[in-house]
Amino acid sequence: MLLQNLTWPDVAALSKDTPIVFPVAALEQHGRHLPVFTDSMLMGEIAKRAEEQLGERAVFAPLQWLGNSHHHMDFPGTLSAEPRLYLDMLCGLLDNFIHHGFKRLLIINGHGGNDIPGIQTVFEMRQRYRNRKDLLLLFATYWNLVTDARLAHPDLNQTVMGHACEWETSMVLRLTPDLVKDYRNVPPQDFGKAFEPASRGWIMTDRSEHGHVGDPREASAEKGEALFDAFTKGSVSLIERMIDWNGKSWDG
Predict the structure, then answer these.
(1) Cα dist from 111 to 65, 74, 86, 102, 116, whole Å
(2) In 3D, which of 123, 191, 195, 199 has the Cα closest to residue 161?
(3) In this predicted model, what pLDDT tens digit does every residue of 137-153 receive, in sequence order?
(4) Is the dihedral of CA 218, 219, 220, 225 positive or negative?
């Protein structure tokens, strides 16, 4: 179900165990060859496909396109919410539906810069409602819901999600090929290892002059469809686990 198509009595009549899904993404630079709306386009497509498969078993809120993208601000076109402001907004989205009586809430994400505020959001909200044993508060990034997404297509070379990379370029080619510019002549950008396993503070210009990480030259629409299929299955599987949760256990 799409939240935007429901009346308030429709929402009030739903079982309070119905999962509520909040898709979030970003509007930020994606190298010289992909549009700035890439993350939101891809997350929106996965949410659309998941909603169609789940039907009346879950409610999907409209996609929130503004994300935490300060690390891309050296590239024109990027829009970004201040990190604490963004975290508070996510907390507010969950708080709204807890107020409405719902107990199974998921923020599903399509932008790597939202990972830390998203995880912090569900951590903070659990502390706020620490006496509630019936709440299931989740944050997940869609490409982390598939154990090995590179197996989605036999010709995929990349092993993990990058930025404006083979994977994202393939998915945009599947959706809107007219928005992809000269990707076969984009120089590859190595992921690097930084100071792993430590987490290093970085901005995109530390890693890439052109604004991408990975190698988009081998992208194709066929690979994009295979990735959409895999990521949709991963998202639906998680939401089905939410539906099946017994309302009290740690495991699910």
Answers:
(1) 10, 17, 13, 26, 11
(2) 191
(3) 999 999 999 999 999 99
(4) positive
Q: Which amino acid, residue 18?
A: T
First and final C-alpha spacing in the chain = 23
Full-model pTM: 0.95
Q: How far is Cα 143 from Cα 232, in angstroms, rounded to an integer?
A: 10
Pick from 122, 56, 119: nearest CA to 95? 122
CA distance 94 to 64: 13
Burial (0-12, 13-18, 19+ Cβ within 10 Å), 70: middle
Residue-wise pLDDT for 98-149, tens only, equals: 999 999 999 999 999 999 999 999 999 999 999 999 999 999 999 999 999 9
Let me know the angle formed at the C-alpha of 111 by 110 and 115, rounded to the nearest 5 degrees: 105
Angle between helices 221-244 and 166-175 (to 10 degrees): 90
CATH tag for 3-244 (out of 3.90.470.20, 1.10.150.750, 3.40.50.10310, 3.30.1070.10): 3.40.50.10310
